[in-house]
Amino acid sequence: MNEFRRDPFLGNWVVVGFRKTKSIAAGTCPFCPGNEDQTPPSIREIRDRDGSWLVRCFSAANPVFQIEAAEDKRAEGFYDKMGTLGADELIVESRSHTKTISAFDRDEMARIVDMYTERIVDLKKDRRFKYVQVFKHHGELAGSFIFHPHSHVLATPILPQQLMLEMTNSRNHYLLKERCLLCDVVSQEERQGKRIVSLTDHFLVLCPFASRLAFEVWIIPRKHNPAFESWADEAMKEDFVRVFLETMKRVEKVASSYSVVVHTSPNAVSQGLAEEDPRVNDYFHWHIEILPRDVNSARFKRDDQFYTVLTTPEEAAVLLKTEKL
Question: What is the pTM of this model?
Fold first, then answer.
């Protein structure tokens, strides 16, 4: 039986004992239309006028986390462990097996954003979950072995280690300067202009100053906003769809594999905080991280203590900006 175990040295939690119980039949794609019986029943679908699904969300066939599991916090000597309570969902983004993000039109991308938003909002209603994470892997170097376009949604009773580091540094910056860290990044990058890929009314697209991977790109709201699922208005959402598609067209010209990760605020309900509570909302700023993968990045990610990047973010920003779309 799989369980969470806390690493006493790093403070993060790992899943131990996970076993796959179902496998995919050779030569078939469980996400293609007509193969719906090869996946669990849909949790949510967005359909066209004829009733055919356009975007599907369902529980993973081999879930790492189970929504019916008990949290069951307990000790083994001075070690800590708990049950793998959580949600493990998949979003099939299109009926097409071969489309990548750069080939989506705005309506298709808007439906995916709507599904991301709905699932985050719905799962955050569960007080047991501290964080809802949405991410997408494309290509084998990014760890995806089904080509059909899809994303993952995970909800867990713990905060991921990287999010905890982001929150700690953002909170320390806010306590010192009474300003949001990412707001300060946006302000400085707009002044310098050296790492900007594109700039719109609502969003800044940049290669971060200390990029971990060549052509790493972040999409950041220019105005402070802690939660991805909290859209200020329809114009902001439309701008995001437009800039995200444009950015992915640039990225897919330089990388065949990549990861896309939504960094949204932790679940205020699970912490007993009001939605408007300033303690998190004042210093956390949502953003999207796009991480291209190649042979070198995959190797350094596994084996090396430090990321090693051959292309500077300044060079990457210029190359991405000048790519013909």
Answer: 0.90
